[in-house]
Amino acid sequence: MRNVCIAAAQVVTGLGSDLDSLWRGTLAGESAIRPFSRFATGRYHCANASCIEGLRAEGGGSRIYPLLERLLDGFPEVPADCALITASTKGCVDTMERHQAGLPCDPLEIPLGGLLDRIRAKYRLAAPGININAACASSTVALARAASLVAAGRSEAVLVVCLDLVSEFVFSGFSALQALAPEACRPFDRNRNGLTLGEGGAALLLMSRERANREGRPELGIVAGWGASNDATHITAPARDGCGLVQSVRQALKRAGIDAGEIAAVSAHGTATPYNDQMELTAFRTIFGERTLPMHSIKGAIGHTLGAAGGIEAALGLRSLQEAILPPTVGLQDVEEAAEGLVSRLAQPIAGRYLLSTNSGFGGVNAALILRRGEA
Amino acid sequence: MEAYLCGVGWVTGAGFGWGRQGGDCNFDNLPLPALTRKDVFAQPNQRFGRMSEYAKLGLAALAFALRDAGLEEWSEKRATGVVAATRLGCLKTDLEYQSSVLLHGGGLASPNLFAYTLANCFLGDAAILFGLTGSLMAVNEAEPDGLSALRLALEDLALGEAETMVAGTCDLPAPGGLTGVAPYPAGALFLVLSLAPPAKGGYGSVSLADDGRILYRGSNSSSLIDLVQAALAGRATAGIT
Questions:
Q1: Of A27, A243, A337, B187, most Cβ neighbours within 10 A?
Q2: Separation of CA B222 from chain center
Q3: Per-residue confidence (pLDDT) for residue A368, from 0 to 100
Q4: Alpha helices in chain B (DSSP H)
């Protein structure tokens, strides 16, 4: 199997239009969660989200395209033989909303294939590409698939683009499920009471190490291991014992050829819903025992960006490994008992080369990536 | 790398069924059947009636495929993965849900309906019903041959991600006003693929060529429907009745 190198990574989040902004913001403990005016929130349990400043839909089009343009503006050259995987749960959901409200829009934007076509055209990619929908683990599953293709030699390079928007459609749904926090979310807090939505995008270019070296590209990190599984328990709630997440992490460890003791930091899903965070803590205690190691969630800084979450978190994870610092868990006030020794309101040093990044989602989905510090 | 085609299940406008039951899989341009629990499961199933139309369609075809492969019954969870390709996914459910949002400023939005506004949600139901703990995902494909899911499943088998995979397509007809957005055959069709030879005879081998082509019994398959029709046509030769 070949080494899978991440040669480029970029993000757009509520904290800014690049990875540097996200890095600086999370390290400083900033949050982009605030009241917003995209739609009326009077009937919902919450009025906050992390929206991207200045993201406007032109002429009845979807905001996803300006987000995509911002994300890929300045992104390094992508080779034409690159495979393409996008990760989005709802794509042009705002176009669907406009269509349903009888407002001017282009219904051809609604199928997710349109997003693939736009990216293919930009880089003149030969392969058609696919969009992966595995709920809130979509981009982690997409990155796992991309790594798998490169490792096995089926692709030399894979571009993974992850995008999701804040929409009334999704906001109302989580409100109906009573899963939204009234104020900004507080991951792994004893008094956490729900998630806060966010929007964002991530683009990551995965290549075989040989190809990246040949083309003189930087090695931001290595995707050392990956795993995905289903806990086969409930449609919208996680398995209490974290069995699916444990299975995913164990697959990733096995593929990376390391044991859990070599993981130096964890980027958790950490949505701040009571059940998700408890499930994760149970799973991590199963994997790591009583060992203390730095762990965080960035949902308190940029909200839950749904299908884009894993991509954004992987990009930030690479930077964390490079800098040997894990940003704080923004929103955390009173640490959940089971999270003591793991999460912190302060940045934590990383002493090691491997970072575990995990996500879970509706439909019982769990996915895990193990990133190794790059050498460039 | 070759995999064995162990089971086929479908729901189309021409009817529903599975390979060993007899009958053919034709994607005629007819309305899809309104599936009831009794059409799919002999035993009571509390969730089926509450599922979206899209979820019922996908779950039914997937159940038929597992039944055809002799894998419907289970006693321990198994690391089988599923890849479901779709053009419009759960768009019909999305539109129904969004109507409920528009009605009362969102205050009366249906949480049950919202739970089915992800294209992969019926896979969660399948995981629970059939004890599947592999990687389960939906993919939006843009190619007309319907082979994306099969290609991904064969890659998973080749890469050692699973020993058994279920792969196929699931799409409702395009909702009114959106019929031009993505021409495709409506219906659901799933195949069970395994690295191990099936205990009770199978439909032959499926493989993934280095250039991405799908081969059935060594011959190029131009579409998922063609592959399945070839497999069903060979039932008598393969000793499948």
A1: B187
A2: 18
A3: 98
A4: 37-40, 53-68, 91-103, 111-114, 121-130, 148-158, 224-233, 235-238
Q: Is A269 a catalytic residue?
A: yes
Identify all chain A residues contacting B105, using CB atoms and an 8 Å cutoff: 40, 42-43
Residue A51 among the catalytic residues:
no
With an 8 Å Cβ cutoff, are A129 and B142 in contact?
yes
Find the closest chain B residue to A150 by CA distance: B159
Residue B142 scores a pLDDT above 80: no
* Residue of chain B nearest A231, judged by CA positions: B133
Are the beta carbons of B133 and A247 separated by less than 8 Å?
yes
pLDDT bin (cut points 50, 70, 90) of residue A3 is very high
CA distance B225 to B207: 16
A336-372 per-position pLDDT tens digit: 999 999 999 999 999 999 999 999 998 899 999 999 9
CB contact under 8 A, A110 and B88: yes
Q: Which of A5, A136, A162, A185 is catalytic?
A: A136
- Please calculate the CA angle B72-B73-B77 and round it to the nearest 5 degrees: 95
B152 vs A contacts (CB less than 8 Å) = 130, 145
What number of other Cβ atoms are within 10 A of residue A118's Cβ? Answer: 17
From chain B, the residues in CB contact with A140 under 8 A are: none
Give the whole-angstrom CA distance, residue A39 versus residue A31.
Answer: 21
Beta-bridge partner residues of A136: A134
**pLDDT band of B141, cuts 50, 70, 90:** confident
Cβ neighbours of A230 in B, within 8 Å: 123-124, 127, 132-136
Q: A119-134 pLDDT, tens per residue?
A: 999 999 999 899 999 9
Tell whether B195 is within 8 A of chain A (Cβ).
no
Query: For residue A117, what is the nearest residue in chain B, using CA coordinates?
Result: B142
Segment A311-346, tens digit of pLDDT: 999 999 999 999 999 999 999 999 999 999 999 999
**A contacts of B177 (beta carbons < 8 Å):** 99, 107
- In the numeric block, which tokens belong to residue A21? 């902004």
User: How far is the C-alpha of A366 from the C-alpha of A253, rounded, in Å?
Assistant: 15
Stated pTM of the model: 0.96
* A56-65, A94-103, B188-197: which is most confident: B188-197
pLDDT at B140 (0 to 100): 92
Nearest to B121 among A97, A235, A243 (CB): A235
Burial class (CB within 10 angstroms; exposed 0-12, middle 13-18, buried 19+) of A70:
middle
Known catalytic membership, residue A99: no
Q: Is B133 on the interface with A (CB under 8 A)?
A: yes
